[in-house]
Design brief:
Elements lengths: L1 E9 L3 E8 L4 E8 L4 H15 L5 E10 L2 H8 L3 E2 L2 H12 L5 E5 L4 E7 L2 E7 L8 H10 L7 H6 L12 H13 L4 H20 L9 E4 L6 H11 L3 E2 L7 H13 L14 E7 L8 E7 L2 E6 L13
Parallel strand pairs: 1-4, 4-5, 6-9, 9-10
Antiparallel strand pairs: 1-2, 2-3, 6-7, 7-8, 11-12, 12-13
């Protein structure tokens, strides 16, 4: 029986999973929407991965988690590694592109840029509270234009005169888009204008002050939008690398980290049938009033976090 390693990337919009072998080859991968419930999304993801997994020849020796719900899902899956998205994306990308110097990543509700030199992260930045230019923003505008989000990029490429769109703020962008429709601009030109606005917003805000050098790898769900890819190439003057499985880069990277950790914590897909409960409550035992998160498995506490002092500590029996 050969070892395999799983990586789970749980974001606010999407949840991704990969399983790799001991030679870092991708055995299977899945991408689904989180829909506001990371625990149920992961259970669904695991069932999809199980259907593809060769359980006769492989066993999952360890799991790694990343993303906004990494700690929660790490506790549920008894993960060997729990890492932030910057590290996961950097590790996954350098394993495929050892010479990468810049990573663009645009997901459902956040964006990030990672600068690497010699395979080491030297700088990074993430977007702030505004979701302008993210996958959710594109989905909303595609719906407003009555264009399937999967066809948005191809529609943009049909433009002959991209319409300028103010996209530094989602509210202003939607108002501007409605105005441009009212004055007769075509959907193709507006789509192209939105793609360019997304890129300019990213470069002027997320990437502000960063030295962008090739090779440049573009990841995240928005990397599948060919209109945005072409706009990045036009604005930076560089070829933009988009991998077939670039949307799985974080999950792939944390699977690699689980493998490299050397920690063996065998995983059983039967966990999808286990009852988990997550509760959050204010401690109230001091002025910090911390929100303590507790994870229960079949009624037994398996992990807790959020307390900033010992008064809020919750005893965990493993």
């Amino acid at each position: 029986m050969k070892n395999a390693f799983m990586g789970i990337d749980v974001g606010s919009i999407s949840t991704k999973g990969t399983i790799i072998d001991e030679n870092d080859n991708l055995l299977c991968g899945e991408y689904i929407y989180t829909k506001g419930n990371p625990l149920e999304a992961v259970k669904k993801l695991l069932r999809l991965l199980e259907a593809q997994f060769d359980a006769e020849n492989y066993r999952i020796a360890a799991v790694g988690t990343t993303g906004s719900a990494r700690k929660l899902i790490g506790a549920v899956l008894n993960a060997a590694v729990v890492k932030n998205e910057i590290t996961a994306h950097a590790v996954g990308t350098t394993n495929i592109h050892p010479d990468v110097r810049t990573i663009f990543e645009i997901g459902g509700q956040d964006s990030k840029i990672i600068i690497l030199r010699g395979g080491v992260v030297t700088d990074y930045a993430m977007n702030t509270l505004c979701a302008a230019g993210t996958g959710a923003f594109i989905s909303n505008q595609a719906a407003r234009l009555d264009i399937a989000v999967e066809d948005f990029g191809e529609t943009a490429l049909k433009s002959t005169d991209p319409t300028p769109i103010a996209a530094r703020c989602t509210v202003f962008a939607e108002s501007d888009l409605v105005h441009k429709l009212q004055i007769g601009c075509s959907k193709e030109d507006i789509a192209a204008g939105l793609c360019r606005a997304i890129v300019l917003n990213y470069l002027n805000n997320v990437a502000k002050g960063k030295k962008i050098e090739p090779p440049v790898v573009f990841q995240g769900g928005v990397s599948k939008n060919i209109g945005v890819v072409k706009a990045f190439e036009s604005e930076t003057g560089y070829d933009i690398i988009v991998d077939k499985n670039g949307h799985l880069a974080g999950a792939y990277g944390v699977a690699l980290l689980a493998k490299r950790s050397g920690v063996i914590r065998p995983f059983d897909f039967g966990i999808t049938d286990v009852d988990f409960k997550i509760t959050g409550k204010s401690c109230g035992k001091c002025a910090n009033n911390c929100e303590v998160i507790c994870v229960y498995k079949e009624g037994s506490l398996v992990d807790s976090w959020g307390n900033r002092c010992e008064r809020g500590a919750v005893a965990v029996g493993r």
